[in-house]
Each structure stands twice: as structure tokens, then as C-alpha cells.
Automatic annotation (TrEMBL):
Domain PBP: 32-159, 181-293
An individual GO BP term: phosphate ion transport
Domain of life according to the entry: Bacteria
InterPro entries named among the record's database cross-references: PBP_domain, Phosphate_ABC_transporter
Protein name per the record: Phosphate ABC transporter substrate-binding protein
Keywords per UniProt: Lipoprotein, Palmitate, Phosphate transport, Signal, Transport
Location in the cell: Cell membrane
Membrane topology according to the record: Lipid-anchor
GO cellular component entries: plasma membrane
Length: 296
């Protein structure tokens, strides 16, 4: 009986030790409290992502060194390779911060205000929310393929721009009615994972009007979208950033299909509702380590 009593006592002691050794974040989560002293989980996109390229430029996270712009995103950042993975990562980590296309926002994460401005299409249109970038179609200069040109005409038409607006992006002005040509065949469109969701809707709408056309959509990243258009793997590339001089010099040009904001997102349990541009920069360059350092 004495041995049994000692065993019970030891088990009880072990249980208390395990409970006492739980991480601070775990205790806080169970208690339903958000701890601003916890480290910030920085989540960024992969190199080659147009969203990352636009984000680091707009928040001045890149610096010029020896005549070249260098991305100063902290090495501690967790790297995600698509918009959907970014959203899931921030949703599942209560101390995370990341960024996504405004049109990709869902109700499982929270977009914070930047310098007092909400991340909405109306605020982007008015210029109050300046964190925006173009969604570009990338084609070869002087493109003569009738199918390529007909698809682009549709995307930029009233019908195509209506699809753009219905999916949460800002359409281009002065769109004209679509005048379909007699086209058929296969069209390969590929690139940015930010542009891909709205491009999927555009392709579906286009195929309904042109039943002899098959649009194959390949989701990669903006850099691949450009390079694969240059080498002919894609008929049309998708880029969620402006093209570099080194890219346009290889014989490609862009046509803007929409304007999109970039939303800075945090976990829905995060009480932070607003950040300054400088604070976002400090977080993503590793100058701010805990949420208390950006808490106002």
C-alpha cells in the first residue's frame, strides 16, 4: 500500500510539473488571453512572388546596396509559397502577421488599418489606402496570335471588368463591350497566385462565350509568369507587380487587368487594429520582436 501511495504521489507531481512547463503562449491561449509580450510570428511570401515584391517596395523594406535594391525581410520570417498558405498560416497562429491580396481576404483573418486607413477597395480607389499594385497580363511585344489578343480583349472589356469587380478587385476605366472573334484552340495562362483566382473566373466566363477554346491556368508566381512568357511556355503571363527593366528588355510588355490592394493581416484574436507603415517595416525587417513594441 505504501508503494502504491508513493506511485500516486509521483504521478500527481509529474502532472503538476507538466502543467507548469507549458509554454507561455499555450497558457494564454487556454485562458483566452492574448499576450502582447509574445514574439511576433512574421510570415512572408517566397522570393519571386509579385505580392512580396510589391509589399517590400511599398513598405520600404528593400534598400539600395551597390546600385541594387535588396530585400531586407528578416531571416526569421516563415516563408509561404501561395496566398492560400499565407491565409492558413496566419489563421492558425495567434501571434502571426502576414500580407495578402485585398481580393483574397476572408473572415478567418483580420486586416489592420495602415496609418488610419482601412484596407478596402473604396479606400484604394480614393487613394486613402496607398498600399496597392497592378495586376498585369504579360505578353510578347507585338503579339499577333488571334486567340491571345481575343482573350485580352475580353479581359479588358465591360464583361471582363465586371468579373474583376465582382471578385473584389478594382476594374479599369473606359472598358468597351466585348466583340468576339472566330477563335479556337488552347491558351496557356500562368503566373502569380494572387492573380490566379480572378483569372480562373475570367477564363470560365471566356470559355462560355468561346466554346471551342480551352484556357489552361497554371498557378506559379509572378517571376515565373514573366520568364515563361519570354520563353514561350505561357501564351500569357500573370504578374502582380510591375515588370523590371531586365524583363521588358527581353521583349515583353504588360496590360493592366485590375488594381489590387495589399492587406496586412493578423490573427483574428489579435487586438491590434491599426499599424503605421513604419511599424510594419520594423516588424518585417526584424527591428520589432514582440507585439508590445508596436502596441500603442
Amino acid at each position: 500500500m505504501k508503494k502504491y501511495g508513493k506511485l500516486v504521489a509521483l504521478i500527481g507531481l509529474a502532472a503538476m510539473l507538466v502543467a507548469g512547463c507549458k509554454g507561455k503562449g499555450s497558457d494564454q491561449k487556454e485562458a483566452g488571453n492574448w499576450d502582447k509580450e509574445m514574439d511576433i510570428s512574421v510570415v512572408s511570401r517566397e522570393e519571386g512572388s509579385g505580392t512580396r515584391g510589391a509589399f517590400v517596395e511599398l513598405f520600404e523594406i528593400e534598400e539600395e546596396e551597390n546600385g541594387e535594391k535588396v530585400d531586407k525581410t528578416t531571416d526569421e520570417a516563415q516563408i509561404t509559397n501561395s496566398t492560400s498558405v499565407m491565409l492558413t498560416t496566419v489563421e492558425e497562429d495567434e501571434y502571426a502577421i502576414g500580407y495578402v491580396s485585398l481580393g483574397a481576404l476572408n473572415d478567418k483573418v483580420k486586416a489592420v488599418k495602415i496609418d488610419g486607413a482601412e484596407a478596402t477597395t473604396d479606400k484604394v480607389k480614393s487613394g486613402d489606402y496607398p498600399i496597392s499594385r497592378p495586376f498585369n497580363l504579360v505578353v510578347k511585344e507585338g503579339e499577333t496570335n488571334p486567340l491571345v489578343n481575343d482573350f485580352i480583349q475580353f479581359v479588358l472589356s465591360e464583361e471582363g471588368q465586371k468579373v474583376v469587380e465582382e471578385n473584389g478587385y478594382i476594374p479599369e476605366d473606359d472598358a468597351k463591350p466585348y466583340e468576339p472573334g472566330s477563335v479556337e484552340g488552347k491558351l496557356v495562362v500562368g503566373g502569380s497566385s494572387s492573380v490566379s483566382p480572378v483569372m480562373e473566373k475570367l477564363a470560365e466566363a471566356y470559355e462560355k462565350k468561346n466554346t471551342k477554346v480551352d484556357v489552361e491556368l497554371q498557378t506559379t508566381d509572378s517571376t515565373t509568369g514573366v520568364s515563361s512568357t519570354i520563353d514561350g511556355s505561357y501564351d500569357i503571363g500573370m504578374a502582380s507587380r510591375e515588370l523590371k527593366d531586365s524583363e521588358t528588355s527581353k521583349g515583353v510588355e504588360t496590360k493592366v487587368l485590375a488594381t489590387d490592394g495589399i492587406a496586412v493581416i493578423v490573427n483574428s484574436s489579435n487586438p491590434v487594429t491599426e499599424l503605421k507603415k513604419e511599424q510594419v517595416k520594423d516588424i518585417f525587417t526584424g527591428k520589432a520582436y514582440t507585439w508590445s513594441e508596436v502596441d500603442e
